[in-house]
What we know:
- The chain is α+β, with helices and mostly antiparallel strands.
- 22% of the residues lie in helices and 47% in strands.
- It has one domain: 3-Layer(aba) Sandwich (Aminopeptidase).
- The protein has helices at residues 45-60, 75-84; strands at 2-5, 12-22, 27-35, 65-71, 87-98, 101-111.
- Strands 1-2-3-4-6-5 form a 6-stranded mixed sheet, with helices on one face.
- The two termini are 23 Å apart.
Amino acid sequence: KVIIEENNSKKIIGHIALNNIDFKNCSATLGKVLVGDPQMRGQGLGPKIIKKLLKKAFEDLGLHRIELGVFVFNKSAIKSYKKIGFIKEGEKRDFRKLNGEYYNLWQMSMLESEWS
């Protein structure tokens, strides 16, 4: 898990994690991507930190596959993941019940060969 701080103030503005690291199968799950400070959103910080973590995963840890799950209503995250190069593999229907309503979850992944 990585905590993201603003350069000048050292104020915590978000976090990101690489979970379920499996060195046998060279895979991991990207999770807990959050830019929590609303003033910092929309500035490209999310994609920037994801790319740094992918670089670490593929180049330093020697992983082959990174996957993630994202709720269908999180349009900005889906747009960012696609722009970075993640591919939609499938959709888990009625995956989670939130406030009395069920939501689907997209499964996305990136392979080492797709990382640039």
